[in-house]
Amino acid sequence: MEDSPQFFEHQFILQAMGDAIVATDPERRILWTNPAFTRLFQYSSEEAVGTSSSFLYSNPDDFEEQGRLRYNMNVLSDPRPYEMLYRKKDGQTFWGEARGAAIANDRGDRIGFTVAIRDITRRKQLIHDLHLEKEQWFVTLKSIGDAVITTDESRLVTYLNPIAEELTGWSPDEARGAPLDRI
């Protein structure tokens, strides 16, 4: 079976992927990794193969929880991505977006799992920074002595600061979504 052209074709695709790919047995011991796994986690394939994939998780409880939720032989595969904190060989942690799937043999028996993991640390940091900026923006708007009303591209109200609320007589909840010219 391993000599079939289809096997080599799949191996090539998995080797070329930019996401870290891990194949495990039913007990989640690592059977195979691609080069992106080595780049991301800093472990060579030789170091990882044959070991429990638990060392990849920053928190041991996350390994157990994912085993119950996604990676056990009795649970249907959930194709939706999920976010998890992982640990590299040097101890550095990073946020990863993972997608897992059960692997079945020709008879339909589950024989293990594959997981694709992408580093999303930068995305998580940008989202955090945007939330921080938004909070600072709202604090600034609330403290301005002038009335401030913000709208979306359709001129529907999205925000009133306290001065605008006082001048218009509209509460932020009442004004939200209303046309600006009505306010």
Keywords:
183 residues, alpha+beta, five-stranded antiparallel β-sheet, two-stranded antiparallel ribbon, 7 helices, 7 strands, disordered N terminus
Topology:
Blueprint: H1 5-16, E1 20-24, E2 30-33, H2 35-41, H3 45-48, H4 60-69, E3 82-87, E4 93-104, E5 110-119, H5 121-143, E6 149-151, E7 157-160, H6 162-168, H7 172-175
Antiparallel strand pairs: 1-2, 1-5, 3-4, 4-5, 6-7
Could you walk me through the main structural features you see in this protein, from its secondary elements to its overall organization?
The protein is of the alpha+beta class and 183 residues long. The chain is 37% helix and 24% strand. It has 7 helices and 7 strands. The protein has helices spanning 5-16, 35-41, 45-48, 60-69, 121-143, 162-168, 172-175; strands at 20-24, 30-33, 82-87, 93-104, 110-119, 149-151, 157-160. The strands form 2 sheets. It has a 5-stranded antiparallel beta sheet with strand order 2-1-5-4-3. Strands 6-7 form a two-stranded antiparallel ribbon. Strand 4 (93-104) and strand 5 form a beta hairpin. The radius of gyration is 25 Å and the shape is elongated. The termini are far apart. Residues 1-8 have low confidence and may be disordered.
How many E-type strands? 7
Task: Provide the helix percentage.
Answer: 25-40%
Strand order of the largest sheet: 2-1-5-4-3
- Cα distance spanning the termini: 71 Å
Largest sheet: 5 strands, antiparallel
The dominant shape is: elongated
Strand content: 15-25%
